[in-house]
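Each record in this resource describes a single protein on a pair of labelled lines. With that in mind, the following record should read easily:

===
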Amino acid sequence: MIRSTNLGYPRIGARRELKRALEAHWAGELTAAALGGVADELVSAGLATQRQAGIDIIPVNDFSLYDHVLDATALLGAVPDRFHWDAQAAQVDLSTYFAMARGVQRPGLDAPALEMTKWFDTNYHYLVPEFVADQRLRLASDKPLRALAAGQAAGVEARVVLLGPLSYLLLGKAKVDGLDPLGHHLDAVLEVYAEVVRQLSRQGARWIQFDEPCLVQDRTPPELAALRQSYAALDRARGGDTRFVVATYFGDVDAAYEALTGLPVEGIALDFVRGARNLAKVRAAWPRGKTLIAGVVDGRNVWISDLRARLHLLEELTGTVGPDHLQVAPSCSLLHVPMDLKLERGLDAEVRPWLAFARQKLDEVVVLTRALNEGAGAVAKALDGNQEAMERRRASHRLHDPAVAERVTSLRPRDFERRNPYGVRRAAQAQRLGLPPLPTTTIGSFPQTAEVRQLRQQWRSEELSDAAYTEAVEAEIRRTVGIQEEIGLDMLVHGEFERNDMVEYFGEQLDGFLFTRHGWVQSYGSRYVKPPILYGTVRRPSPMTVRWSAFAQGCSRRPVKGMLTGPVTILQWSFVRDDQSRERTCQEIALAIRDEVCDLERAGIAAIQIDEPALREGLPLRKREWAEYLRWATAAFRLSAAGVEDRTQIHTHMCYGEFADIIDAISSLDADVISIENARSGAELLRVFREHGYDKGIGPGVYDIHSPRVPSVGEMAGLLRDTLAVLQAEHVWVNPDCGLKTRGWPETTAALRNMVAAAQAVRAELG
């Protein structure tokens, strides 16, 4: 019999219960025991939801208080020395766990957090493991055992989810030059994993799922040899009836297929949504007796599946692997989509039938499984309703706007280029702006306090009039501009108090976007986003930011940046229509942003920042596809920016990515200034510039805003001096790593004062 399963479920709670509990705990308002109680309730609710939906085999240990990669670090006891964890302790304690995630600053302990970067090509962030030569690893967490016990108590057939040992080592970074984590630490990691397997087996685990998403990237023969070594060792450790699944997702396994299918495991999960080549591999050769977990329901996007097309694929797979060796699943963990469409009220009636969130995707998995086991007639109503929704979507006029189509097809090469090269522009901008060497600025947002959020909520619920709301936001802007002037910043921002989210704010003002009230998705820790749903043609009906930027500029004689989100980031951080190419959709967004840029310039704004933090995130997982993506992605940015005069300075911002991969593409954006994450990654970015150079304005961040700690003047001055060792001073700006919306005012002003003092000290050294 064919069975239904799942690879992971959202952790955050239907009403964001996890966020509220975490932040209350960090504020000292909720004990560790009470936080654990909230976590237990969320785990129980997730198990119940999946069971009630009809899922046969349900994942456990997919829940995390912060991040599943950090959970693996705790499991292995791989705590860096700077956190002063007592290595003799039985387990990694909660305070050490959160110190690794957020950094810590208290008497006797001042330690920056682990580096944070994007989880493959998603907008989820993970905490990067750190490796040193003399690292001692041991089992330091019983979380998988507790998760299995919870599943057993709930009466479900549980599959324990662990990040696979190969992917864990490949996702980490050596903190010692020349150290190969895979070659140096694999045996030690496998010893701990083997002990986990032994204990899970003794506890009665029927299934253990090892996630190895790194297999959908380009892998070397030594890495594939390490894969074989890993599962041979784990196979020797298990006992009883415990069965192994190796799960891959986000793409094709390609050259890893032979090694993967040869492993001593009972099941393999393959992605048939983003991994189109996986089907040909299975057709050509599938090992007899192994179970295929077929990821046929898209776990990364919110559109309903074409159930008849998916059923046709599954019927073919059934014929290849046999009905007793097929399980139907989403393509990846449902962590990446909102929880439940039923929570939404007032959604667009035409678009709503096109959507499926995590809970609805479980239903799709169950319908497909029933159709295979009982015949299509058993689920005819569901299949017919799905087909009708698909047909109505394809026929909708809201997906096709002739005027926008004409504008896109009429684009010419000159539309993608500034009027003059950077050297000419730089001279014109210097004359207009009159900035000192090493100019200081911030990335854009300032603290979004409870009062600010309440202000927006009252306005949205019509408890506050438009006039009263405008007056209140202007007061926040005026105050924030004054604070920046008093601190001594050279280029100011308006603070973005009118904005809920850097993508949602723009999507709300553009045609073609749909918004939810409860469509939250975890970005990292307690930071959740509510991605817009980009369902149709994108068009800008009217200016979006000009009123606020113009007001802010009127409050100061210093330049105030206009703040926009770039087309690639709006694309990447939305749930995007899947009925036309991403390049075409990105061009539509770029034209809307271009119109806003030109309006800001006409309003007298001398510097305009078009943020593209998601540029690196969108890079395909296979290198053979990089060039094509970077071609259209960088072109979209240039299209959005190229309509201004030489004397208008275009900024952009990027954060949390491996920028060595795309340094040439960053330069080809042709932005006058780029601010870029640097502090948390240990100045790794500077090595890139030492090797490649950079000939435009750039601000490598001098402090990490995702941590509450306030770096000293000396710490930031040291980073700035390191920057000047590889970049010319005339190109260097001084700024934080990212926007300040998640921070509080006291730590923000303290850190910015230190940053300005550091810039002034180093500026004096330059003479």
Observations:
- The longest strand covers residues 157-163.
- The mean pLDDT is 94.
- The chain has two domains: 3-83+114-397, 423-449+486-765.
- Residues 423-449+486-765 form a domain with the TIM Barrel fold (CATH 3.20.20.210).
